[in-house]
Fold:
Amino acid sequence: QKEVEQNSGPLSVPEGAIASLNCTYSDRGSQSFFWYRQYSGKSPELIMFIYSNGDKEDGRFTAQLNKASQYVSLLIRDSQPSDSATYLCAVGGNYGQNFVFGPGTRLSVLP
Amino acid sequence: GAGVSQSPRYKVAKRGQDVALRCDPISGHVSLFWYQQALGQGPEFLTYFQNEAQLDKSGLPSDRFFAERPEGSVSTLKIQRTQQEDSAVYLCASTRRSIPYNEQFFGPGTRLTVL
Structure:
């Protein structure tokens, strides 16, 4: 059974701080890794994807992948109250395309 | 179209009724996915189509769940004899490219409530 784990939170950070969200996965053969943001009552919205070990930066967001440790993280710099949402980690299967999602981490950015 | 659309957005069914949920993927996207999301949980995979072919249905929870995509575009998820545990948001997603560049884009979901 492929598993993706995240701390459910809530993770509270002050406005302007760096928020660090973590995710571990069990399937060592996974090829693709995604971070989605989901506001309450809305559908998941793709923020970033990463396929190779290392860091990938996009604006205030940085995704970090370490396949050896089976670990992927998302850093949000200069956090804003509008970043308050649930962040879902998703891992793409190695033979199929079906994603396995983590339970999500609820982030609260305090003004 | 501009994005993935789903209908209806909300559906209330009495236990035992059959329901049909529709998904229109982004134009040109060959792959289509259905997920079930319970309150406070991440989406759980139900089934996957590539064009009209259903390549993976391992996530369908019972034989009451059936999905089709006969012409490789619009898909319908059908739930027969609904039960209270079927209450959830049903999400549809589509993707243009294949592994590993398989970013999925989600529709707004259908919230199903079974009374």
User: Anything to note?
Assistant: Chain A touches chain B at residues 4, 31-32, 34, 36, 42-46, 49, 51, 88, 90, 92, 94, 96-104 (CB under 8 Å). The mean pLDDT of chain A is 92. Chain A has no helices and eleven strands. The CA atoms of residues 86 and 106 of chain A lie 4 Å apart.
